[in-house]
Amino acid sequence: MDIAQLNSLSYEDFVDVLGNVVERCPLVAAAVWSGRPFASVSELEGRIHQFLDSLPESGKDGVLRCHPDLAGRELRSGTLTAESQAEQRQAGMAALAADELSRLARLNAQYKRRFGFPFVVCARLHDAAAVMRLLAARLGAERAAERERALGEVKRICGLRLIKSHLLPVCP
Ligand SMILES: NC(=O)NC1=NC(=O)NC1=O
């Protein structure tokens, strides 16, 4: 699908196509539909970023809270979205040893207690060791800075999902 076809979609079809570029937040696609026609998918991506940045802190926290834990119960129960499933598997989350799994679960729980939202990273860009290192390092961050850092990861995940949907050129 090219940008002209995207611009011609009803908001229902637009949300069908783009509803999960931000994990479990179809509101984002539904909101940016108002901004069509987009000159390019990069412009669309920019509108998504603007929408996310415009949210109040509670809204940003809400977006983050829609993200499933890495190697969490949803990966184990097979209830992840297709995108998350592929991303987490690529980062080696389905192949962790028992001790790595329990360390990750402990760090995730510690992170959630501290920040009130889950640790979010663009899993496709890291392997399991890097994920652990990032999580341990970010535990010490200040809350407002960590919220922005996590939202940056949501934007990276969104960009890769736009590429996967053949909408965003590989080298934007
Ligand atoms: N908590 C997370 O970071 N989750 C995820 N990151 C991804 O890239 N895919 C996920 O499901």
* Name of the CATH architecture of the domain at 69-146: Orthogonal Bundle
Global outline: globular
Give, in order, the helices and strands.
Answer: HHHHHHHHHH
Q: How confident overall, as mean pLDDT?
A: 95
Classified in CATH, the superfamily of the domain at 69-146 is Oxo-4-hydroxy-4-carboxy-5-ureidoimidazoline decarboxylase
Q: Helix/strand-derived class?
A: mainly alpha
Q: What Rg, in angstroms, do the CA atoms define?
A: 16 Å
CATH classification class of the domain at 69-146:
Mainly Alpha
Task: Give the bound compounds.
Answer: 1-(2,5-dioxo-2,5-dihydro-1H-imidazol-4-yl)urea
Beginning-to-end CA distance, first to last residue: 16 Å
Characterization of the model:
With 172 residues, the chain is mostly helical. The chain has a domain at 69-146: Orthogonal Bundle (UraD-like). It contains ten helices and no strands. Helix 3 (26-32) crosses helix 4. It starts with a helix and ends in an 8-residue tail after the last helix. Keywords: Decarboxylase, Lyase, Peroxisome, Purine metabolism. One of its GO terms (biological process) is allantoin metabolic process. It is found in: Peroxisome. One of its GO terms (molecular function) is 2-oxo-4-hydroxy-4-carboxy-5-ureidoimidazoline decarboxylase activity. Residues 7-162 form the Oxo-4-hydroxy-4-carboxy-5-ureidoimidazoline decarboxylase domain.
How do the strands and helices of this protein lay out in sequence?
Elements: H1 3-7, H2 11-18, H3 26-32, H4 41-54, H5 57-65, H6 73-77, H7 82-90, H8 98-115, H9 128-138, H10 143-164
This protein binds 1-(2,5-dioxo-2,5-dihydro-1H-imidazol-4-yl)urea (2AL).
